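User: Fold this; tokens only.

Assistant: Input:
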Amino acid sequence: MKFVDEVIITAKAGDGGNGCVSFRREKYIEYGGPDGGDGGDGGSVYLQANKGLNTLADFRHIRFYEAGRGENGASRNMTGAKGEDKIIQVPIGTMVYVDETDELIGDLTKDGEMLKVAQGGFHGLGNLRYKSSVNRAPRQSKPGSEGETRSLRLEMKVLADVGLLGLPNAGKSTLITAVSSAHPKIANYPFTTLYPNLGVVKVDAYKSFVIADIPGLIEGAAEGAGLGIQFLKHLSRTSLLLHLVDIAPIDENEDPVESVKVIENELQKYSDELGSRERWLILNKIDLLLPDEQEARCEDIIKRLNWQGKAFRISAATGMNTKDLSYQIMQYIDELDYQKEQDELQNRT
């Protein structure tokens, strides 16, 4: 599923510099005439698509962007410097709307593509511009015009990189809270999550991935039990699946191994492709066991499942080992992206 990431920002272009009123003053030149220069144009605000970004997360913290003001003109017919343009980096696929009118003004679809969203003010005119045959010593100038100010809505459809799956109450909402800035509803009972939650995990500058907390699957989901078909469709669009299992369930009769097998069965029934998708086993809630019990319980589950893939031991509630998990996910996604780029280059040649 494609989720919508949306943010509202304000773009303020720079004002134009004012024109200068000045007269040439040199020794032995009694009437030098006007020499006031024009001001500089104000800088404009641009959005530029950057393939290194995949979310609008950074705009949650900075909402106001302003370009430089044009410098005023000076004597000796010196023109003021142009204001510096402001270039804002956004992910590929960002759609730009004027917030007040809901007008679509651009859709950035290619890496490096630029869109002007606020026009800089026009430069003012110096008094030299007003010299004429009937006005040899004009004392008038023109101020620079104001730069454009716009309230913009940036919107992009985000494809989740990572999907969380597991039976209800496995700790998916807690994990997404631990690794991202999302705050889904969390409670100690099944089916707390009714709709997919989306979180952006920022690992480093310009390094982040999108994680989707899919509502808990139940037995029979592939046949449509609950909202099973809809939720399985969400998972089919992700690059990596994290299979959370509660290794210390409240109900002593609940077997973590059987919990994993229930979900595996639903994935296989839905599609062979989804069933064979890269899936990591996340053994959650290890903080509820004594230290000497943790490893024994985890090894028992891995052995009984005959698990051949990656397995992580974490506590989403305390954050134990969640940072290492995030870094390894980011590395995996980077490797996938690199491989895709190499495949595209080979297909072109």
